[in-house]
Structures are given as structure tokens and as C-alpha cells.
Amino acid sequence: MMRIVRGGQSGRDGVALLYAVVGAFVAISMVTVMFTMAGVTRTRSDGRRSRVQAQYLAEGAIETLKLQMKEAKANWTLPELMQGWADQTAAAEDAGDESLYPTVDVGGTNVRFEVKQIAATEFVADPAGIQTELTPYEVEAVATIDGQQIRAGKVFYLESSPIFTYAVFYINDLEVMPGPNMTLGGRVHTNGDMYLGSNNTLTLDTNYVHAAGKIFRKRKNNNESKGTVTIRQWVANPFDSSEPSSFVVMNSKSQMDPVSTVSGYDSNFTDGYDGNRDGDFDDAGEWLPFLAGALEMWKEPTGYAGGTGNTVLTGGHGVQEAATPEIGSIKAFTPTSGGSYVWDDTAKDYVFVGPGNGTHDKGYYNANAGLSIIVAEDGSSFKAYDANGDPVPTWDLNGAVTLTDMYDARQADGSPAHTPIVQIDLGLLGASNAWPSNGLLYAAHYGMGTGTDAKGVMLTNGSELQTSLSVVTEGAAYIQGDYNTVNKKGASVIADAVNLLSNAWDGSKEIGDLPTASDTTFNTAIVTGNYATESGKYNGGLENLPRFHEKWSGKKAVINGSFVCAWESEYATGLWKYGSDRYTAPKRKWYYDTFFNDPGNLPPFYPQVVETRDVVSW
Questions:
Q1: N or C, where is the chain less crowded by C-beta within 10 Å?
Q2: Cα dihedral angle (557, 560, 563, 569), rounded to 10 degrees?
Q3: Do residues 260 and 138 both lie within one domain?
Q4: Pick from 161, 195, 212: which residue ends a domain?
Q5: Strand intervals (E) in 297-395
Q6: How far apart are CA 41 and CA 158, in angstroms?
């Protein structure tokens, strides 16, 4: 039996032992509770992390879908895309099976979604008459991570406007560095960075100078910052002569002296200049950082009562990339899974094998052309097709089509070889039975290549067009002589590269020769390609976007239209060089044609620029 001892050392030892046992039990209990609480906290933390991940995935899915819709709208495939999503959604709802809903991949995770148009399309015109098509959509995305399901939604506008309502539109970096004075009127936009400079004075007479990237007051391939660049302060309608005309200089590096800058007053000027270090930029000689300063310098003039706005905006101000057609749209045929055509190596032609059975489809413009002219791979013959794809007899063309060649020194690059050309006399074609009834003329060669194998289409006798006309080719286009100058109509030329030949061009140019040009006017919008400027390899800039081949010194090249660089040239890849047997520069009289502000004057099948604008999110 146990003996209880009262008092003394043994009693004290027993109590101590009891306290130790109790203390150990409490400690063990506390540790157990701590581990339990840690587990609960970890579980809650994991749950929060999963919810946050799901939220980001759902929101990312919406942005991905907006981009897909924007690009599909620009490439004329939005109806098919929307119908496909609608069919999948209807099937999921009918079957009660969430796995049948359409999904979009976001970082390797599939997120289900629903998209619907929630109101009718409307057209809104700005004060200059330029119309924008607005269509509202609602999209909801549902993302699930570790059992945590999050739903996000957004209402946004898909906004599209004719690309020819821009004076200048570039999908990549825009560089403007003219030698003589140059004035640009109309909207100027680039999806990349903008580089502005001049050997004399560059004037931007517009209320719209936007870059999705940054704006620099220098050359792209070095920090050379020279000349004078002036930009108009914002007004509602810069084409209205009654509006105030107030210009502010965008200072070059030297014009900023004594303030030290990298390249002048531009996106490199991020810190501003606080001369007396008093914490503000309000004192004489001080400069706001460019992002804030651009908003101040090129807003509406003081006292202007016609509204508010800002002419100069960059990605830092919220300018986003706009979608435009891809280069595949100008190809005769494009690789397509489940297409309708295959290449027949015996016939040396694409043959129709039925939807879903082929490897290729016609490019957008070839598929929709009222008249297509396709030159055989060996260049010995051509075929013509009408809007239904039926052959057009040669005699119906009235002798308008000729197979020939020309010397293109840029593409030849020191070689005497000539470039194969299909020449189309638009005067003869207009008097024939084959003029494209829908105003879309397509022409191309099979077997395209680079250098002198970058085959081309030459338009001649085009001073008066039968109707509004868009001419498209996957190769190089050459416009010879006054174009669309009599009874002007909506016109465009869309090509891998666009070349301008004067009224004096007679086709006699050879290696080492530089024929003299004469004054020539081209009333047409231009969609063309170029290549990216790299160190020591300038692409010629906007001032050389249309390519020249004659001695234009002292002669006028007048262009009324729109200048669009929509892709990098795939075939006409000859590098820009000045002088020798290439060309010398004309007096550039280049203008945005306000004729295009009226939608009724736009050329047929004009491309669109598509953007998105958010309305509400949840």
C-alpha cells in the first residue's frame, strides 16, 4: 500500500513530480493545439491561395478571350468564332454537362467561359465624321483550383474603325526622320514605339499621336536627336479650319539644354527636372516628367470651349495595341487544317477537293475578289477567275493583262536580274467585260521567293478608275503614273511592298542606271510591309514606306491617302539604301485624304482596326 508522508523532503519531491507531470501534460496539449491550429491556418492559407489563383485565371481568361475576339474581328472571322462558342454553350446547357462548355487555355489551365452579344451594334461618329462601330459583349469565366471555384465577368465594347481613317498606322515601331520639311495631318498610331525627328521640321497637325509603347525624340538605331518636331494641341476636329491651331515643340536633346536628357523631351525623360529642388515642377525652367508633361503640353489650348483631350498619349497613359489583318489575308492560298484545296504537283495548281478534305484555303482577298489573276509558277501563263471562281476567257480581259519584267534595283541588290511582273492596264480592264463588279481585284504569282523572285504586279493607265477599287497582291505592287486623279474614287493598294513609279517611267531601267522621274500624283490608301530597323540597318522610316526607283530630285510625289504598315515584308525583303541606282528622294507632298472621313468614300473591302473598351467588371 502507498504511504503518505506529510511534510519533509519526500513530500516536497512528490509535489514537484506532480507539478512536472501536470506541466508536461499542459505543454503537450499546447503543442497539440498549436499543431492543430497550424494545420487549420495552413488549410485556410491554401484555400486563400487557391481562390486567388482561380481569380487570376478567370480574369486572365477574359483578357485572352477579348484578344481572340479582337483579332478575329480584324480578320473577318468573328462570326464563325462566336457561332462555335455559342454551339458549345448550347450543347453544355442541353446536356447539363459543364465539361462541354467552351474553354480557353490560360497558362496551361483550361478555364470555361460564356460570351454573348448583349445589345445591337451602333455607329458613332466623331466631330470629323470618322465612324466607329461599337458592339457590346458580356463574358463570364469560371476557374477552379483545388476545389475553389471563382467566377469573373466583364462587359466591354469591341470597337472597330476603318484603317484608312488613320493617316499613319503601324503594327510595329514607327520611325519618322524626313530630310525636307514634312507635315502629317490625320491620326497617327503605332502598336509599338514611335521615333520622331527630322533634318528640318516635322509637323504633326492632328489631335491623335498615339503609341502603345513609348515615344522617343530620336532615331531608333542611335540617340541622334535633331531637327524640330511640333505637335498640335488637342481640338475636337483638327480638319475644321475654324478650330484654334496651336502647336507645341517636342524638344530635341539640344533644345532641352541646359537640362541634360538622353534624347530630348520624350519617354526617356522619366524623372522630370526640379531645378531648385523644392519638390515641384512649377518654377521657370523646370519640366514635368514626360508622362505627366505630355498631358499638360498637348491638351486643349487655353480658353478652348470645344471639349477636352490630349493629342500625345503612350502605353503609359493606357494606349493599347489595336488588332489588324494578318499577312495571310493577302496570300493566294494559306495552309489550313481541313481546308478545301490541295496543291497538285502535276497541274502545278491548287485544286478544289471539298471542305475538310484539303490542306489549304484561299486567302481572304483572293476568296472574295471580283476578279483574280493568278500567274503560273514558271511565269509562262496566267488564269483569271470571276467572283464565283469560274474561269474568265482571255478575250474578256480586253488585252489588259501582260506578263513582263522590270529591273528593281532594291530587290536585285547588285545583280542585273529582272523581277517577273504581271502588268494590268486598268484603262483597258475598265473597258472590258471583266472589271471586278465588287471592286476587289486580286493578282498573284505561284512560286514566290525573295530577291528578284519577289514577283510583282504593276498597275498602269490608272488615272481614272471605272469604280472604287482595291487591288491586292501577296507580292510587290508597282503603281506607274498618275493614279485615281480623274473623278477620284475610293482606292487602295494592299501588298507585301508598294512601289511608286512616275509618269516618266518607261521600263528601260537597268543595273547602274537611274532614270529621271516626273511629277506624279497617287490618290490611294497604301497597306504595305517593311522590315525592322536594327543597328546599322535603317528601314527608311515612314518617309520611305512607299518605295521609289527613279531620280526624283526636285520632282513632286504627291500622295493623298493613308499610310499603313501592317506586316513585315515576306518576299520584297530588299534593304533600303539611298542613291546609286536605287533612287533619290522626291519633294514629298503627302496628305491624309479627308475624303475617307465619309464612310461612303472608303474603298471596297477596307481593313479594320479593332480595339476593346471595358465598361464594367465583377
A1: N
A2: -50
A3: no
A4: 161
A5: 312-313, 333-339, 341-344, 349-352, 358-362, 371-375, 382-386
A6: 44
